[in-house]
Amino acid sequence: MNPQDAKAAAVGSLREPPGAPRTSDRAQTELELIGVGKEFQSRQGRIEALRDVSLSVGRREFVVLVGRSGCGKTTLLRILAGLVHPSSGEVLAEGRPLWQAGGRRDSDAIGKLGIVFQDAHLFPWYTVEDNIALPLKLRGTGRAERRARAHELCERVGLSGFERSYPRELSGGMRQRVAIARALSYRPGILLMDEPFGALDALTRDKMNLELQEIAAAFDATVVLVTHSIREAVFLADRVVLLSPRPGRIRSVTEVGFPRPRRFDLEAQPRFQEIVRDLRSQLDEEA
Ligand SMILES: Nc1ncnc2c1ncn2[C@@H]1O[C@H](COP(=O)(O)OP(=O)(O)OP(=O)(O)O)[C@@H](O)[C@H]1O
Ligand SMILES: [Mg+2]
């Protein structure tokens, strides 16, 4: 072997071979909740939204949260994002506490977050292109590169031709796709997504499921996603975390071991259907 090949082989051995299925690294924890509780004070009194939630999200893992409306999924996601301070317990980002006496610590993990909220949260006076490229602008990326990236992302999420439109000119599903493109604009290492596909029609939703799987692999991203669709959860997840309501607690964690990349024919497999059935019956018991 000539020296150059030897060098390439040595480097190669440290990486996954090209085209290898993405594997999550549970040993390398990216975000962790330890005994987290959250209470809100409202006019109706005290609401205990979460109680004693412990969850660790590994590097490149795809975790999906499911549970009935109001069981605390959004609250949990916002706590992971460092947007909400927990009433009890600890949040660790890359092994270190996120909250300190003086407030939130600036951590690398939080710096590389892309968030898709339950509502699109677009700026109405910005075009689609400018909404998508906003995180890049805030990071000082030049205009030409911002535009190129926004166009590429519009294509990815099926919005080509709408780059110059304003949010008010789009449907709800299209606005949500702008929000997804915006979250992806600076290639975040961690994606937190709150029902990102809830407003999409079934066909677009299926397409976005495949697309998201591909994006997560291409960006080597860690993903935590909330959905009401059990089928979507099982299709996308490495682990499905089911929350039970009032107060929100982790009821079960289901390992979904299907190899990647996954295609929709997976859904015809008895094992897939069995997991879906089991999760649905757990949800029914919560009713
Ligand atoms: N800022 C807040 N102030 C007071 N109560 C809140 C606040 N945010 C959430 N809650 C309460 O906490 C509980 C959990 O809310 P959360 O939005 O996390 O639920 P969810 O699982 O995301 O529901 P959905 O599936 O409908 O989106 C609810 O009872 C809600 O009323
Ligand atoms: Mg919610």
Summarize the structure.
This protein is an alpha/beta fold and 287 residues long. It has a domain at 25-105 and 231-287: Rossmann fold, CATH 3.40.50.300. 36% of the residues lie in helices and 27% in strands.
Verbal overview:
- The chain is an alpha/beta fold and 287 residues long.
- The protein has a domain at 25-105 and 231-287: Rossmann fold (3-Layer(aba) Sandwich).
- The chain is built from 9 helices and 12 strands.
- It has helices spanning 3-14, 73-80, 108-111, 128-138, 143-156, 172-184, 202-219, 230-236, 270-286, and strands at residues 25-42, 45-59, 62-67, 88-93, 96-97, 99-100, 103-104, 113-116, 190-194, 222-226, 239-244, 249-255.
- The strands form 3 sheets. A 6-stranded mixed sheet has the order 8-9-10-3-11-12, with helices on both faces. A 4-stranded antiparallel sheet has the order 2-1-4-5.
- Helix 7 links the parallel strand 9 and strand 10 (222-226).
- The longest helix has 18 residues, at 202-219.
- The termini are far apart.
- The model is unreliable at 1-21 (pLDDT under 50).
- The structure holds adenosine-5'-triphosphate and magnesium ion.
List keywords for this structure.
six-stranded mixed β-sheet, 9 helices, 27% strand, disordered N terminus, binds adenosine-5'-triphosphate, binds magnesium ion
Structural class: alpha/beta
Second rung of CATH, namely the architecture of the domain at 25-105 and 231-287 = 3-Layer(aba) Sandwich
The proportion of strand residues reads 25-35%
The CATH topology of the domain at 25-105 and 231-287 corresponds to Rossmann fold
Low-pLDDT runs = 1-21
What is the strand tally? Answer: 12
CA-CA gap between termini = 65 Å
- What small ligands are held by the chains? adenosine-5'-triphosphate, magnesium ion
Question: Helicity level, as a percent range?
Answer: 25-40%
Gyration radius (Cα, Å) is 20 Å
Q: What oligomeric assembly is this protein in?
A: single chain
Shape estimate: globular
